[in-house]
Amino acid sequence: MACHRFAKRAKPRFPNLRPRCKAATQGVPGRRTPKYAGLCYTFHIMASIKRILVTGGAGFLGSHLCERLIEQGHDVICLDNFFTSQKSNVNHLLGRPNFELLRHDVTLPIWLEVDEIYNLACPAAPGHYQYNPIKTMKTSVMGAINVLGMAKRCRAKVLQASTSEVYGDPQVHPQPESYRGSVNPIGPRACYDEGKRAAETLFMDYHRANGVNVRIVRIFNTYGPRMHPYDGRVISNFIRQALQGEDITIFGVGRQTRSFCYRDDLVDGLIRMMNGPDDFCGPVNLGNPGEFTIRELAELVLKLTGAKSTFVVRPLPADDPTQRRPDITLARERLGWQPTVALSDGLVKTIDWFRSIDISEYRPPTPNY
Length: 369
Hints:
This protein has 11 helices and 13 strands. By secondary structure, the chain is of the alpha/beta class. It has 2 domains: about 1-45, no CATH class; about 50-230 and about 260-290 and about 325-345, 3-Layer(aba) Sandwich (Rossmann fold). The strands form 4 sheets. It has a 7-stranded parallel sheet with strand order 3-2-1-4-5-6-11, sandwiched between helices. Strands 7-10 form a two-stranded parallel sheet. A two-stranded parallel ribbon has the order 8-13.
């Protein structure tokens, strides 16, 4: 009887879970309900709840991923050193019983017991990852080694958040996963580009040599609420400058192209990849195939904000890609995933969020924003 009462209490908390054992809730006509039928339902709930580690979990994408996993009922451990992230991104989660926040640097070993790991830890904006390039490389390489070692010990699944930067300044357009890239290994962006490429190598070597269950996604430009106003990304820069009445800074003449994926679509892709078949390690591109020039983006931001800012042109940084667009054929076929939020719709939500915050409460992570 105690097991049946527990099952009834648990059911509203996890409305999406269904009992694996039919007899656990309704019995079988003509038969007595088995003595331990309630345990079937209880154990099924326990088996469905995972303990999940998200490194870089207080960042822009990491905080939204933590939020989604918590809503699904999982126990989430958020690990972050708060270099380019904000504790305010996860303040609203601190009171949740299935959320835990750890201040820790992923380059240092840590011993946790987990079922899944999302490795998102690394500065992602050029200005910030170039501020301390050696630490950026260590974050990608040592961070990968540490989470892979944990996954090996715990027999956990581990997902690497790689980047479209592994393609460098591409000579193939759009970029499929089979394209090996055109990266300058000794340029100012190499600490990030080559660090992420090395992390992918480590993931596949741990998979081949040790049987670790790995997944690799290559993330293209992503945006949305909770972007740090000073993170150095083009969308956050344009919105912040427009709302503060500053001139809009465009590097080059603005003809270089980018593709922008809204955060909800991206988080959905991450979770689909983690929950996908074990025989599909990736890498797989996650991004929106819609392609815009930087000048088109700037004009759209001005239109949506109503700002009267003017454009200021500066020299294009070294090794800055001239074009970037994902081929997401593989994501469509293997994950059933494709983005659904149009750029204009996502920008409206992002601009509304920027209007709702006090930018003076945010500190630039580095002077390079």
